[in-house]
């Protein structure tokens, strides 16, 4: 760590290509001129951000979590030892698993420094009974709980977390990164997508959360009425084989492009005419922000913090989760209305620029760091 910089130590389960992991990376990159950062994670199989974090000056530890009572205890004590040796000004934990392990290690280390926990989606805030009990205990020693949606905050309040401890900081993004020069024709050629088709796409891990069966059913229904549509799925995940099989069984293979995970999302979005998010639960989706940055009109299920980002009819359209008929109606409305698509796409970009930039997110987080280090909350909330 550089002399003179306060050290912030983060504990997060993995450093793979997830939304929380990306927000942590962006936060560290944005604030690395002010603070030194130490990151502890414990999933070596999902560690794509490790090298990038080290390149911007963060110290990163990847400690495999061991099985069995003895293995878990040794794992906990390793985190404790790093906290003790680093003696950071603040410890911050991310997501339900690290909120437990990181805070438990913090208590073992007894650093007498501020402690922050982070909740990133509504389902995480509605965790199992045992987790709620453990969280209630650990929250006694937690100075601040940062949520990225008001929906998650509401869930925490229902479970008895003190409102004085909860702060809402929405995710942040860099809009100018999505001002790319590639043409729609070029990126469609690169992806093998027909130039003449109307392209409806989604981006995200292929997991139960994202509800790809709804996306595929939507495509099947729409194609019965409009044969000039093409669908693109960008991402990987454990349910990709099942999703591909579903597409094949419904005779839709020639109407779908599955790209796998990509790191050129800003360019890929240029191929889209419409972005769809069919998730069953969410926090504050990065992919939705990305589509809005790219001026792609969006339709999303009204789950988690999505309704905080998308104002129905103003900068996008909302549908109820699992509502196939409502989703199809919304898509057909925009497919046939070029002017409205343009208006919604432009409004989406303005929303991000005005409220949800990386600068907004980083400055609000830094303000909490400074508040805690100044001692205005330390001890008073416990």
Automatic annotation (TrEMBL):
Keyword set includes Disulfide bond: no
Any one GO molecular-function label of the UniProt entry: glycosyltransferase activity
Keywords, comma-separated and alphabetical: Transferase
InterPro entries per UniProt: Glyco_trans_1, Glyco_trans_4-like_N, Glycosyltransferase_grp1
Positions of the Glycosyl transferase family domain: 184-350
Ubl conjugation listed as a keyword: no
Organism superkingdom: Bacteria
Domain named Glycosyltransferase subfamily 4-like N-terminal: residues: 18-176
Name of the protein: Glycosyl transferase
Native organism: Methylocaldum marinum
